[in-house]
Amino acid sequence: MTEFIQQILAGLAAGVVYAGLALALGVVFQGTGMLNLAQGELATLSAFGAWSLVEAGMSFWLAFPAAVLLSAALGAAVERVLVRPVEGAGPMVLLAAGAAMLLGLNALIALVWDTDPKTFASPFGASSVGVGEIRLTSQQVGAAVLVLVTMGVIAALFRFTPVGLKLRAVATNPDSARLLGVRTGRMLALGWALAGAVGAVAGTAAAPIAGLSPEMMAGPLLLALAAATLGGMTSRGGAVVGGLIIGVAGSLASRYVPGLGGDLQLVVPFAVIFAVLLLRPQGLFGRAATVRA
Amino acid sequence: MTSEPLLRVDGLTARYGSVQVLHDVSLDVREGEMVALLGANGAGKTTLLRAVSRVVSTGGTLTLDGADLTRLDTIGAARAGIGHVPQGRGTFGELTVEENLRLGSMGRPGSLRGEAESDLERVHEMFPVLKEMRRRPAGALSGGQQQMLALGRALLARPRVLLVDEPSLGLAPRTTAELFEALAGIRASWSTAVLLAEQNARLSLRVADRAVVLARGGVARSCAASELSDEAELRAAYLGTTPVRTTAAKRGSAEPAPRDPGTAPRTDTDAEEASR
Fold this sequence. Notes:
Chain A is mainly alpha-helical.
């Protein structure tokens, strides 16, 4: 039983990273209608940025917010410069733009920081916390808290602030938003900035566990896609719950399903995607458009 | 009535691709006035409204209180005081009724921010159903309720000119009547001018001060609303032929008199039209 609980907690700790990325994917998808395949690469870039600042002698607690802010700015810049010109060109073009960005950023990261894996010392120390025999590393707990707090801030922003209301309005009906004088372009850039910031938190939180390498977010991005599909692309809360479920499912499957260790546990999220697409295409919490006939 | 019109459209042209849909359209809307934009399907009513709110680009002159509108985009026009209730309502289906209305209030000029709360109450008085359903997603509302929401939302932005596109489309007669009753009152109580595009000519003529009839992308007739209350006149205007009573036309165009919708003459055709 202890081990079972241990596995669940480890799964949740891993799941918050997927949840963070899934949330970033969802925010961009709702605003721009683009499945941003480069979201993981943007997060990797943020993690490398934070690492470089720490290596240069900066405290993690200064480097971290700096990386988050820079990533937000980068997200907005990507929307302005790379996405806006092809915005009206349809989903396939947007998907291709995302794929191109993924390859480009990946190459850029390898060029600047080379492909040797690097270790990112945990800002939370190497101790462990827990009750009785159930133990988690302080890094696992600290990273989870970091991502969860970020998601709470994002949720509150969307739910309770005027700018959050405008963001949701633009995601729902950009034409009507324009007729009401809402600056839609600014809102889309802001959505990308928020996604960049959340991705940066997820990437920086994952780095001490996963190790820094240009490919560090390839697996998590696929898992985040699974999480977003599971929870529903149009539901920010759903993406978070989806991420946690995927994390726990992966953790339990690799422990209890014989022969499913290591990389093979990636099978689990795809089984989940497949099942969701068959049974509930809008996701667990996604809304099929609520429009009365 | 000699002052510069609030909204001036002069020599307006518009095209979708290679198809020209508006040819040299000119019309004025004065402060506090309601102008009915009439015409058959495809006459260019919607395009004209979309041109004013800068959704479609145009040639010709377009000014709001003397300021050039053609240099603005949709967002700029909205901020300059153009309100637009689009055909099909354009509500935010996933947001609640309350949130939809709040988005309207956010678009108002800074000088009127303080009145947002009392204005919201006035919208609730006008359409009590919007208060009852304020926590529902707008997408769950009926067509008539969504139309009320779209109108209320546009009013809360406190526009100087409100464009309303086919409000009666697909609505039950009783709902349409309720909506037009509200429309009749908004000029005075919200101090806005209204340009109302509507296929139901009888209903719009009952609430409007003046009428402009579009046919095949041009202005076929522009006169006081009362002049078209005669069936023959209206038919002539739609068909673009010379009206039978030319004397009435001259009298009306010189001095368009605001009409009280309550005292508008009712005919059998009226009743027929309204109950369709």
